[in-house]
Write a structure and sequence with these properties.
With about 180 residues, the chain is an alpha/beta fold. It is about 25% helix and about 25% strand. The chain contains five helices and seven strands. Strand 1, helix 1 and strand 2 form a beta-alpha-beta unit. It is globular, with a radius of gyration of 16 Å. The two termini are about 30 Å apart. The model has no long low-confidence stretch (mean pLDDT about 90).
Length: about 180
């Protein structure tokens, strides 16, 4: 039986595990860490005794994790980065639609998805609203926040967008 103080999570598009390490330090127990890159998976396995699923996110089945506390990930940034073509929703690397399918399948209590500042560009306003509407339809209250890593003691200027979504029955406890 799960301790009432243990928070379980799955992390998708985990890369070499930076965000996963932060979540672990915050008290999360990763039930699965998902990454497509074999070298990143090798790093994940070498550094932690996590279950690492090496696969394309499109093939990952989130249903076994129904009711998990947190679905987290750093989805691919090139579709929204000013350093790229900013193809957004039409970019084949865009995985927000896959993440939404996972969220529908596993119904986590909370969602945390990280991306680049470009995601807040006005050209993506319609797409952000589509994502928000999908989350609301699934029973979540969502918020998009721009945060800078330097504000949290990280020695670099790294603005990142965080999409935070909480199940409606939990959302009145947070601002």
């Amino acid at each position: 039986m799960k301790s009432p103080w243990t928070l379980n999570s799955i992390e998708v598009c985990a890369g070499a595990g930076g965000q996963a390490l932060g979540l672990e330090r915050a008290g999360f127990n990763h039930l699965d860490v998902v990454e497509i890159d074999p070298w990143a998976c090798q790093t994940l396995r070498a550094n932690r005794n996590w279950r690492v699923t090496e696969c394309d996110l499109k093939r990952f089945d989130a249903r076994p994790y129904r009711g998990i506390d947190l679905y987290a990930g750093g989805l691919p940034c090139p579709p929204f980065s000013v350093a790229g073509k900013q193809l957004g929703e039409s970019d084949e690397r865009n995985l927000f639609n896959i993440a939404l399918e996972h969220i529908a399948d596993c119904r986590p209590r909370a969602v945390m998805i990280e991306n680049v500042k470009g995601m807040l560009d006005p050209r993506f306003e319609g797409y952000r609203e589509t994502i928000s509407r999908s989350l609301r339809k699934l029973g979540y209250r969502e918020d998009w926040r721009l945060l800078n890593a330097a504000s949290f003691g990280v020695p670099q200027l790294r603005p990142r967008v965080l999409l935070i979504a909480l199940r409606n029955e939990l959302s009145d406890r947070f601002d």
